[in-house]
Amino acid sequence: MKEGFLKLGSRDWAIGERTGIFGILNVTPDSFSDGGRFVRIDAALAQARRMVEEGADVLDIGGESTKPGFKEVSTEEEIARVVPVIEAIVIDESMPVVSIDTTKAAVARAALEAGAEIVNDIWGLQHDPEMASVVAEFGASCVLMHNSRGGWRRDGVLDSISASWEESVSLAFQAGLSEDRIILDPGIGFTDTREQDLEIIRNLGALRSIGFPLLLGVSRKRITGEPFGLGLDERLETTLATTALGIGEGIDFVRVHDVKENVRVAKMTDLITRG
To answer: Which terminal residue of the chain has fewer beta carbons within 10 Å of its beta carbon, N or C?
Structure first.
């Protein structure tokens, strides 16, 4: 993709001008970091407003935990968790674009009908055979993540990510999605080892050179805590380090829990690196 404008749902995003912030809003009882805090609609809506006030550009709503060893929930349960929250958010015209974090096409459809405009799929359209067509039907944008839980495509980490992305982008194009609606995610935390996560982070510039906008999702994950013996509520500074490094390597978006702090780091790093 040439540098220019990306479609974030119905809104234009100027690629390269500044770093975009996806604020994480998990409406699940068992997410690894904030499970149970925002399952009530009023609590979820209050958190959404807080993240917007702090500078979130996208609200990324998830109704099923994808932490290692997670227990899959039914389609009906996931829809029941996310749709009322999406409806409560989008009725407020001051709210930004809403993204649905799901692997199920039926959930994506329900969320898009409720007002979401982006589908964030940790399987990059490769898990549910109907996902690509649903995204295309609604003219939505999508985040296509590499996920090693399905196995590595090639021997090298970067080559395997590239191969997975090629398949995901091909599925998107076959369904009729245009390239200006695609964001790629290298899948930090969805690898097998800490060393693989570090290799990805060290090579973000090479991955960004593939040509699509890149989203980095490291917030509070194992790589920000386990090497230093830090608990989930102690990983802010280590997350911020990856935000700054990623922006320096050319990433376009970060997906984070702590919006205010990451916005401040992004603004400073953008000032240094983007001018």
So the answer is: C
